[in-house]
Amino acid sequence: MSAARLPHEKRPARLGDLTPGGRGIVRRVSGDPVVLRRLMELGFVPGTQVELVRCAPMGDPIEFRIRDTHFSIRRSEANRIDVDPV
């Protein structure tokens, strides 16, 4: 049974929702265990600050900066990561 969301509650921000230059603190990473593990190995772990650097012309992939390292991942993978915008 899924929990009902109250009208005043908004869905968590997704990493894929950020705009270039936007930053967020990783809150939660979800999804398939294999993808989850790979994202966490790249540095997408709760408490880490992430900055969206730029998007490809067609919107996919997306480049992020984590601790002075740049990574590009698919938008679908970025949408598995909940963030608190900074």
Q: Assign a percent range to the helix content.
A: 10-25%
Under CATH, the homologous superfamily reads Ferrous iron transport protein A (FeoA)
CATH architecture: Roll
Top CATH class: Mainly Beta
- What fold name stands as the CATH topology? SH3 type barrels
Number of strands: 6
Low-confidence blocks of residues: none
Percent strand: 35-45%
Name the shape in a single word.
globular
Please report the distance between the alpha carbons of the first and last residues: 32 Å
Please report the number of helical segments: 2
Compose a concise summary of this entry.
The chain is of the alpha+beta class. The protein has two helices and six strands; from the N terminus they run ββαβββαβ. It is globular and about 30 Å long.
Q: How would you explain this protein's 3D organization?
A:
There is one protein chain. The protein is an alpha+beta fold and 86 residues long. It has one domain: SH3 type barrels. It contains 2 helices and 6 strands, in the order E-E-H-E-E-E-H-E. It has helices at 33-42, 75-78, and strands at residues 13-14, 23-29, 49-55, 62-66, 69-73, 81-85. The chain has a 6-stranded antiparallel beta sheet. Strand 3 and strand 4 form a beta hairpin. The radius of gyration is 13 Å and the shape is globular.
